[in-house]
C-alpha cells in the first residue's frame, strides 16, 4: 500500500480515540447524541475531518512520532519547512533531519525531558532537503494513553534562521558600536528622560573612579545648567546640539582643578512596545561627551597669567595714580573749605580789606589747583559685563599672589564650591576687588610677630539667590568699634598709611554695590578677620540691565 501521511498515521495509532479526546463533547450511548460537558447542552459532535484538517492546514510544522521518534504523521507545513514530502518522511526517524552539528548534550536534555512526561522547548540545527542547514525552534510534547503512559510524541517546529540572523546582526552591530565607543578617548554617556544612565563607555567608567562620583554626568549637568539653563529645553530649540562648552571642576576628589570640553545632543528612539505597533511613539535620550582638556588649559593659563599680571600691574599703576591724586584733592579741599567758610563769615560781618582779598585769592588758587588735579585723574577704561565664575577669578588672583604668599610664609586654604553658579560682572573689576582684599589680608598677617601659622582661607559657596566668597585670615583683625568706618574714604587701620591709603575698601564696596551685591565684615568672628562678599545669581534679565 502506498504510504500517505494520514493513512500511515491511522494504521499505526488510535487516531479516532485521540480525536475523541480532543472533542469537548462525550457520546451518550443511549440516545446516540453528544452532550457539551461544560454547558450541559445537547449539540452535534464536531466531525473528525475538522480536527484532521486543522492539524493538516496549521501554519506550523507538526509531526507525530512513535516512542522511538519514527515519524507517523507530518503536515503540509512540515514539508514546506524541511523540503521533504510526507511520503519521503513517513517511517523515517526524526534524527535523519539532524545536521549533525547540534551538541550531544542538547539531545540528552531533550530525551531526558520528554521521557519523563515533560514538554521540551529548544533549538536544533536541522538539515533541509537541499542539504543546507537551518535553525529550528522546537516544542516536543508527550502524548499519553488513559493510563498516562507515553504512546507518541507530538513535535512542532519552525525555521527561525532569518530571525536568528537578524538578531545576531543586530547584536553584532551593537557590539561593534560599543567597541568603537569604548575605544574612544572621549568619555561618553547616554541618559534617558529621567537622566538615568542607559549606556556609557570605558572612559566614562574611568571618570567615575577619577572624580569619585557615582554618576559624573549629573555633576556635569549641574555645571551645564549654569551655562545653558535647562539642558533639554535648550536642545529642543538648538537641534544641532552644543559643542565645546568648557566646564571647570574645582575641589573634586583628589584634584585641585580640572577642565572639560563638553558636547551634547538629543536623539530619539522608537519605543519597542505593543502600543507602538500601529502608531509609533518615541523615547528621548541625551548623549553627552566629555574631553579632559586640563593640560591644554594649564598651558594656556600659564601664558594668560603672564599677560594678566602685566595688565593688572598697569591697572594697579593707574589706580595708584588715581588714589594719589584723589587723596591730594581731598587734602587740598579741607583748607579750601576752611578758607571758604572764613570768607563767608567775614562777609557776614561786612569786613573788608586786604585780608579778605587775600583770602579770596587763596580760595581761587585752591579751586584752580583742585580743577587741575581733577583733569589729571586718569580715566578707567569701561569694561563689559559678562557671565563670570568666582572660582575662576579667585584662582587667577591666588596664582598671581603666589610669590607673595611664599615670601610671607602664608598658608593658603582654597576651598571652592564644586558647582558654583555664575554671576554677572566685569572680570577685571571683580579681579581687582579680590586682589585688594588679599593684599589687605597679607598686610594684616605681616603685622604678626609670633611664631604661629599665618593662614588665609578662601571659600566659595552659594544659596538660593546669591554666590558667596568668604576670605578669612588669622591676623590681628579689625576692632568692632571701627568696623563701620573701614568703607569710608581715606580711613585706614595702618599706622603709616600714606596719602594713598584708605581707598582700597571704598573701591571694593563700589564694585560690589554696582552689581547689586554686598560686602561686609563678620563682626562675630574673633580669630582674625573675615570678609563676606555676596553677589546675585545670574539671570536673563540681568543682561538687559547691564547691557549699557
Secondary-structure map:
Elements lengths: L4 H8 L2 H8 L2 E4 L4 E4 L5 E2 L4 H9 L4 E5 L5 E4 L1 H7 L3 H4 L14 H11 L5 E8 L5 E12 L5 E10 L1 H23 L3 E5 L5 E4 L1 H10 L4 H13 L2 H7 L4 E11 L2 E16 L11 E11 L1 H55 L5 H23 L9 E3 L1 H11 L1 H6 L2 E6 L7 E3 L1 H20 L7 E9 L3 E8 L30 H11 L3 E4 L7 E8 L3 H6 L3
Parallel strand pairs: 15-17
Antiparallel strand pairs: 1-2, 2-3, 4-5, 4-8, 6-7, 7-8, 9-10, 9-13, 11-12, 12-13, 14-16, 17-18, 18-20, 19-20
Helix pairs in contact: 11-12, 13-15, 15-16
Task: List the keywords.
single chain; 548 residues; alpha+beta; Beta-Lactamase; five-stranded antiparallel sheet; 17 helices; 20 strands; rod-shaped
Description:
The protein is an alpha+beta fold. The chain folds into four domains: 5-160, Beta-Lactamase; 184-292, Beta-Lactamase; 295-381; 383-548, 2-Layer Sandwich (Heat Shock Protein 90), CATH 3.30.565. Helix content is 42%, strand content 25%. The chain has 17 helices and 20 strands. It has helices at residues 5-12, 15-22, 48-56, 76-82, 86-89, 104-114, 161-183, 202-211, 216-228, 231-237, 294-348, 354-376, 390-400, 402-407, 427-446, 504-514, 540-545; strands spanning 25-28, 33-36, 42-43, 61-65, 71-74, 120-127, 133-144, 150-159, 187-191, 197-200, 242-252, 255-270, 282-292, 386-388, 410-415, 423-425, 454-462, 466-473, 518-521, 529-536. The strands form five sheets. The chain has a five-stranded antiparallel β-sheet with strand order 5-4-8-7-6, with helices on both faces. Strand 6 (120-127) and strand 7 (133-144) form a beta hairpin. Helix 11 runs antiparallel to helix 12 (354-376), helix 13 (390-400) crosses helix 15 (427-446) and helix 15 (427-446) packs antiparallel against helix 16 (504-514). The radius of gyration is 45 Å and the shape is rod-shaped. The model is unreliable at 22-42 and 496-500 (pLDDT under 50).
Amino acid at each position: 500500500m502506498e504510504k500517505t501521511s494520514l493513512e500511515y498515521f491511522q494504521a499505526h495509532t488510535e487516531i479516532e480515540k485521540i480525536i475523541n479526546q480532543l472533542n469537548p463533547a462525550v457520546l451518550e450511548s443511549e440516545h446516540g447524541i453528544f452532550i457539551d460537558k461544560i454547558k450541559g447542552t445537547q449539540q452535534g459532535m464536531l466531525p473528525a475531518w475538522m480536527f484532521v484538517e486543522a492539524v493538516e492546514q496549521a501554519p506550523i510544522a507538526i509531526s507525530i512520532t512513535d516512542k522511538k521518534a519514527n515519524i507517523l504523521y507530518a503536515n503540509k507545513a512540515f514539508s514546506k519547512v524541511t523540503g521533504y514530502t510526507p511520503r519521503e518522511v513517513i517511517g523515517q526517524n526524526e534524527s535523519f533531519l539532524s545536521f549533525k552539528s547540534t551538541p550531544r548534550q542538547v539531545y540528552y536534555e531533550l530525551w531526558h525531558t520528554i521521557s519523563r512526561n515533560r514538554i521540551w522547548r529548544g533549538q536544533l540545527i536541522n538539515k533541509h532537503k537541499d542539504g543546507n542547514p537551518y535553525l529550528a525552534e522546537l516544542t516536543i510534547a508527550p502524548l499519553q494513553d488513559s493510563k498516562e503512559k507515553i504512546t507518541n510524541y507530538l513535535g512542532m517546529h519552525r525555521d527561525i534562521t532569518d530571525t536568528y540572523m537578524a538578531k545576531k546582526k543586530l547584536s553584532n552591530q551593537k557590539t561593534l558600536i560599543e567597541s568603537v565607543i569604548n575605544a574612544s578617548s572621549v568619555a561618553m554617556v547616554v541618559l534617558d528622560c529621567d537622566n538615568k544612565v542607559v549606556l556609557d563607555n570605558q572612559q566614562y567608567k574611568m571618570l567615575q573612579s577619577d572624580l569619585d562620583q557615582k554618576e559624573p554626568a549629573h555633576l556635569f549637568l549641574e555645571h551645564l545648567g549654569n551655562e545653558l539653563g535647562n539642558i533639554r529645553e535648550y536642545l529642543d530649540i538648538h537641534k544641532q546640539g552644543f559643542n565645546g562648552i568648557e566646564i571647570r571642576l574645582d575641589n573634586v576628589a583628589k584634584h585641585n582643578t580640572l577642565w572639560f570640553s563638553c558636547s551634547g545632543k538629543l536623539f530619539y528612539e522608537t519605543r519597542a512596545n505593543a502600543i507602538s505597533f500601529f502608531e509609533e511613539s518615541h523615547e528621548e535620550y541625551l548623549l553627552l561627551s566629555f574631553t579632559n582638556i586640563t593640560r591644554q588649559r594649564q598651558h594656556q593659563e600659564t601664558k594668560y597669567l603672564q599677560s594678566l599680571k602685566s595688565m593688572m600691574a598697569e591697572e594697579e599703576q593707574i589706580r595708584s595714580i588715581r588714589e594719589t591724586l584723589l587723596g591730594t584733592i581731598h587734602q587740598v579741599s579741607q583748607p579750601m573749605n576752611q578758607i571758604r567758610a572764613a570768607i563767608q563769615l567775614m562777609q557776614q560781618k561786612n569786613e573788608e580789606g586786604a585780608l579778605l582779598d587775600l583770602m579770596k585769592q587763596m580760595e581761587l588758587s585752591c579751586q584752580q589747583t583742585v580743577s587741575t588735579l581733577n583733569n589729571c585723574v586718569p580715566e578707567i577704561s569701561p569694561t563689559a559685563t559678562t557671565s563670570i565664575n568666582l572660582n575662576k577669578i579667585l584662582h587667577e588672583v591666588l596664582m598671581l599672589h603666589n610669590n607673595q604668599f611664599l615670601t610671607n610664609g602664608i598658608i593658603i586654604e582654597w576651598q571652592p564650591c564644586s558647582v558654583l553658579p555664575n554671576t554677572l560682572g566685569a572680570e577685571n573689576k571683580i579681579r581687582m576687588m579680590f586682589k585688594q582684599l588679599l593684599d589687605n589680608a597679607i598686610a594684616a598677617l605681616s603685622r604678626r610677630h609670633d611664631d604661629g601659622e599665618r593662614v588665609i582661607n578662601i571659600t566659595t559657596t552659594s544659596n538660593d539667590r546669591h554666590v558667596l566668597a568668604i576670605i578669612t585670615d588669622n591676623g590681628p583683625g579689625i576692632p568692632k568699634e571701627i568696623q563701620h568706618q573701614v568703607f569710608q574714604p581715606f580711613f585706614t587701620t595702618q599706622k603709616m598709611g600714606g596719602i594713598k591709603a584708605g581707598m582700597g575698601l571704598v573701591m571694593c564696596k563700589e564694585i560690589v554695590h554696582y552689581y547689586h551685591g554686598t560686602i561686609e565684615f563678620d563682626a562675630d568672628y574673633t580669630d582674625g578677620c573675615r570678609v563676606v562678599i555676596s553677589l546675585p545669581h545670574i539671570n536673563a534679565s540681568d543682561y538687559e540691565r547691564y547691557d549699557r
